[in-house]
Amino acid sequence: MYQKKITYYSKHYEKLTLRQLLKKWLIPKKWQHLFRIQHDVLINDIYQSFNTIVNDNDVITLNFNFEPRTEQHYLPGHDPVDVAYEDDDIIVVNKQAGKKTHPNLKTEDDSLMNDVENYLQNAHPYMVHRIDMETSGLVLIAKTPYLVPIFNRQLSSKTLHRQYLAVVKLNLPIPNSGTIDLPIGQDPNDVRKRMITDDGLRAITEYEVIEKNNNFALLKLNLQTGRTHQLRVHLSHMGWPIVNDPLYNSDSKNGKLLLFADKLTFEEPFTGNSKIIEAKLSKDMYNLICAYFKQPKSSSNPDN
């Protein structure tokens, strides 16, 4: 059983009932129902009606005494993990380029999730979101399956934001900022690829030019949706393919894909407090960017 104790602090002098608070915390209705009928939600160690007003400094205890929606464990991996942030409930890992986020088969042990399985001593990893194998950067992972639906709702409500940096080839001119709103579907000629198609799923990417020269641009990118290969497809379609993209850039690949997930913003579960995790560029990524720009204005100093 997963148990969470939270000391409640009112924001903006709001007065919330227990029911309103659980809704604000994005706890699914089915779980709220189970909390109520099983008396598994307590205020100061006592079960009370869902219409009870929660006061400052009240201690809320949530006993998740029911099966989660998903329960999947992975074989232990072999590689160390670069931890950007960790607490009792979550871990944010800086994934290297060329490593899959998760295994495709239960017998595989060479993905990021396998490595995190090996790293965690008293918990298992549960995937919140993924990034492409060729992409490097931050990945948010839960240590309990009970947090996954909450983060899924944050993704849907846009309170979980993912920001990327990318170096693109300028086959066409690029405005200083903009929004790409083009639907993405399966490429009928290549099962590995996606493409812009009228009957695809809506996909929205916001971009801002940080540095550019005649041939390349360094972009800051924000996902408003999370389609497979979204950034790579959108940028290639606009005439700005990401450097070293083996699927969507016709130029010869000469190094790692220059796409890096550098920032995650989300709400800490059960508090509503905003959390921002930023990753420094690795030495090799920093050096690759410097090969195209003398002094990229956006990039953090690489790790020493």
Automatic annotation (TrEMBL):
The keyword Transferase does not apply. This is Pseudouridine synthase. Gene3D superfamilies: Pseudouridine synthase. GO terms for biological process: enzyme-directed rRNA pseudouridine synthesis. The active site is at residue 132. Belongs to the pseudouridine synthase RluA family. It is an enzyme of class 5 (isomerase). It comes from Companilactobacillus bobalius DSM 19674. Keywords: Isomerase. SUPFAM superfamilies: Pseudouridine synthase. Its EC number is 5.4.99.-. GO terms for molecular function: catalytic activity, acting on RNA; pseudouridine synthase activity; RNA binding. Responsible for synthesis of pseudouridine from uracil. It holds the Pfam family PseudoU_synth_2. InterPro entries: PsdUridine_synth_cat_dom_sf, PsdUridine_synth_RluA-like_CS, PsdUridine_synth_RluC/D, PsdUridine_synth_RsuA/RluA, RluA_PseudoU_synthase. It catalyses: a uridine in RNA = a pseudouridine in RNA. Residues 89-237 form the Pseudouridine synthase RsuA/RluA-like domain.
